[in-house]
Amino acid sequence: MKTLLWAEKLKLKRSKIVWIAVFSAIMVAFIVFMQGQFQYYGQRYVDGAAWYMTATQSLGSLYVFPAIIALIGSYMICREDQDDTMKSLVLVPVSVSNLIRAKMIIAAVFSVVLYAFLFAVTLTVEAALHISLLDLGMVLDFAKIYLLEGICLFLAVSPIIAIVYRLKKGYWLALIFAEMYSFLGLFIGQSTMRSIYPITAAFCVAGYYDTAPVQFVISLFSLLICGGLSLLLLYELSRKHGIH
């Protein structure tokens, strides 16, 4: 398993999709910063302490990162089939279930690292704008929100990764599905369903929304169902290759 994780990490490092993800994170940070230049009652939005970190996390999580995370996961898990190397791996033999598990673990780690990178960017900007207004408690709270969002959002989009792998129509399809999926979260986030819908449930578990204990449990359960569903779909598909 350790060898498979190492191999998948190397494959991901060589992929251009990683640079697409980095560029997307930087663009989100830049767009939110430019939005912060608008004035409200004579004061710019970005002048408010923590506004930038809050807005960047929400904008990225609703519009950009579900698609990026789904794309990365689908790219990794569909690559052997699309490059027609799965037959060779089965002959080695390589455990297909372990291979798929390694790919999903690396995709989950990448999701967290992407959010850690975004947090580092936003914290740098916040410190440059108003270092005197930041305290350790605030920084740690935002670090927790960002990192938990990375984990939770991966769970939320994991069924899309599994479905795209099942369809075998190309990993770019994940980007389209994830964008539609996350776009609905804009509307559901304003309703009582936000603790159930996986995209907005990620916000509840991460701590972005003020959430009652019951809502937190419902949101966590919703995300765990997503993770369980994706594992079930991927396990059934790995069985078809014959080596577990």
Give the topology, please.
Layout: H1 2-13, H2 16-35, E1 39-40, E2 43-44, H3 51-82, H4 86-91, H5 96-130, H6 136-167, H7 173-188, H8 198-206, H9 213-240
Antiparallel strand pairs: 1-2
Helix pairs in contact: 1-5, 2-3, 2-5, 3-5, 3-6, 3-7, 5-6, 6-7, 6-8, 6-9, 8-9
Explain what the structure shows.
The protein has 244 residues and is an all-alpha fold. The protein is built from 9 helices and 2 strands. The protein has helices at residues 2-13, 16-35, 51-82, 86-91, 96-130, 136-167, 173-188, 198-206, 213-240, and strands at residues 39-40, 43-44. Strands 1-2 form a two-stranded antiparallel ribbon. A hairpin with a 2-residue loop joins strand 1 and strand 2 (43-44). Helix 2 (16-35) runs parallel beside helix 5. The radius of gyration is 19 Å and the shape is globular.
